[in-house]
Every structure is written in structure tokens, then in C-alpha cells.
Amino acid sequence: MSSIIRTPEEITARVKALESMLIDKGLITTQMVDRMVEIYENEVGPQLGAKVIAKAWSDPDFKARLLEDTTEACKELGISGLQGEDMVALEDTDDVHHAVVCTLCSCYPWPVLGLPPNWYKEPQYRSRMVREPRKVLAEEFGYVVPESTEIRVWDSSSEMRYWVLPQRPTGTEGWSEEQLAELVTRDSMIGVGAVKAAS
Asked: Which of 117, 126, 156, 183 supports an S-S bond with 107, CB 3.0-4.6 Å?
């Protein structure tokens, strides 16, 4: 099987070619492209999910609300919208690691994670992640989950979109929410990668 992850260079080249073609044909303008980039950089995206997670790591009461009703807890931080109406945050522990897939298409919690990465929509990821998650995580993402940790794979749908609340890294006691948010990665919120180590 070919890798389900494309290089940043491949993705960039494809995006530039598509953008140029659409502009040349008069279907979009550069201003429209700039506005879309602004939306996904500032108004939706993984930086907002990182903000939610940092708040949960810092505030036990918020964390409890997040795990009880993810959608409503996110609204407390001004985070909501299309594709985020019914979200569920899954808490990683020492014993259980969660990973998310959409076996039918690419259902994904846009308000907290932004647009889904290309590999999330690939048939190889969608089928293999359900059958052999430990192998996919190790081989495709370089993310090794200890054998003693159970891996639970959750199938997102248009009715329910899942994302992961990873464990807070050790050595971050006393950190601000802004500092903590810098450690959260998009992949850690999908369950295919780790948060950054505290340094």
C-alpha cells in the first residue's frame, strides 16, 4: 500500500495548481482565497481545539463540562458552527488511547480542528484504521502506543463528530493556557499523534 500521508511539498504544489486554475477561469478571486485562508487560520481550526484542550487541562470544572457536553462547553469559549453541532471529546488515559476515523466519508469537527487533512479522507486510512489501528499509527504516523494501552477507534458521522482530549504532558505544572495550547497538535486531537513534549 502506498503511504496515506502526502508530503507538504506535494500538497502545496497541488493547492497552488488548483488555485491558479480556478482564478484563471474566473471562478474565484485572490481576495476570495485570502478570505478563506483567514477564516481557517483564525475563525475555525486546530488552534481553537488547542485552546479548548488547554482550558480543560487547566480547569477541572471546564473539563468535566467538556466531557459531559462537548458542544456546549465549546460554546463557552465562543467556538461553534457548521460541522460542530454534535461533538464528543474523548479523554485519553494511561489505559486507553482514542483515535478517530470516518469510515463513510470525512465527517470531522471543523470548528475545533479546521479542514480535515487529505489522509483523513483516503480510503486506506478509513478502512485500515478500523482493522489494525496500532499498526497504522506506528507505520503511517510514527506514533507508537504501548501494548499495555487499549486503542479505541471511534467512527465519526454526520450525527456525531468525535475528537480526542489528549493527556496533559508532564512538566507543565504552572503553565498558562497559552503555553499549554502551543503543545497541542491537530494529530493529537485526531488520535494519530502525540502532543509536543514540554521543554
From this structure: 156
